[in-house]
Design brief:
Helix 3 packs across helix 5 and helix 3 packs parallel to helix 6. The protein is built from ten helices and ten strands. The longest helix has 21 residues. It is an alpha/beta fold and 255 residues long. The site of magnesium ion has 2 residues, from helix 1. Keywords: ATP-binding, Nucleotide-binding, Transport.
């Protein structure tokens, strides 16, 4: 079985400090992998390397069997990998639907540019995007809010909108960076149900960075714990939770 994602020896330094240190990491199709560890462990930087936002100083990345080292985010999206981004401020005034439509335009940018001089094709593409955007909004239970400006959503609803923007890319690997952080408990539960459903019914593979240990325990079939830029432990939740090094570095603090 070809892993969805394979990182080998990824390393990133910022002005002499090694923030991600020789990290190897794989994700099999259909898995939900939890990535956790103390603040400053290098989790977000690892996501930036996996999603092409940062280029590694060393190491390789393979996505769906294709060498993806040093590819920019839009090329990784075409290979099937996307990550959530915090909603950009300037999009606050656009409606929820427009935010989702825009995610598709960014992703199909080239083909749409090609269609610019063919108005009928453009109209058709726009209609297809709008239909797909409405399907995605329905999936994340935001249909009733499609005309509201994004700024009017609650924190948790904004996270659902970020996820909706990811889903527009029709990627099969989705990286979520602290999607439950600062979200009201009932919406955290809704997000967890949605992730499980996207995994089981839509075949999506997830890597989720999360501090909320209950969220990880509930969702992840495999857990990777990072500390000081390195992988400290990996395996089932119970396996890593019982690892003395993990208990010492992190889970011990949370318990
Ligand atoms: N662009 C950057 N320039 C310099 N240092 C950075 C940069 N991004 C992150 N760091 C540092 O790298 C370390 C890991 O950060 P980060 O990947 O955000 O950790 P985590 O997501 O696990 O909390 C931290 O010490 C942080 O200060
Ligand atoms: Mg982080």
């Amino acid at each position: 079985m070809t892993p969805r994602l394979m990182a080998d020896g990824l390393t990133k330094r910022f002005s002499g400090t090694t923030v991600v240190d020789n990290v190897s990491f794989y994700v099999d199709p259909g898995q939900i992998v939890g990535l956790t560890g103390p603040n400053g462990a290098g989790k977000t930087t690892l996501f930036n390397l996996l999603s092409g936002v940062l280029k590694p100083d060393a190491g390789t990345l393979t996505v769906n069997g294709v060498d993806a080292t040093n590819l920019p985010p839009y090329r990784l999206a075409r290979l099937g990998l996307v990550r959530t981004f915090q909603l950009a401020r300037e999009l606050d005034r656009l409606s929820v639907l427009e935010n989702v439509q825009l995610a598709a335009r960014n992703n199909v940018g080239e083909s749409l540019t090609g269609a610019l001089f063919r108005p009928a094709a453009t109209r058709q593409a726009e209609q297809a995007i709008t239909q797909r955007a409405r399907e995605v909004l329905s999936l994340v239970s935001l249909s009733a809010h499609e005309s509201k400006p994004a700024a009017a959503l609650s924190g948790g609803q904004k996270k659902l909108l970020e996820l909706a923007r990811c889903l527009m890319a029709e990627a099969d690997i989705i990286l979520l960076d602290e999607i439950a952080a600062g979200v009201a408990p009932h919406l955290v539960e809704e997000i967890a149900v949605l992730i499980r459903r996207l995994n089981r019914e839509h075949g999506k593979t997830f890597v989720i960075i999360e501090h909320n240990i209950g969220f990880i325990r509930n969702l992840a079939s495999r857990v990777v714990v990072m500390a000081s830029g390195k992988v400290l432990a990996e395996g089932s939740f119970d396996h890593v939770a019982a690892d003395p090094a993990v208990v010492a570095s992190y889970l011990g603090q949370a318990a």
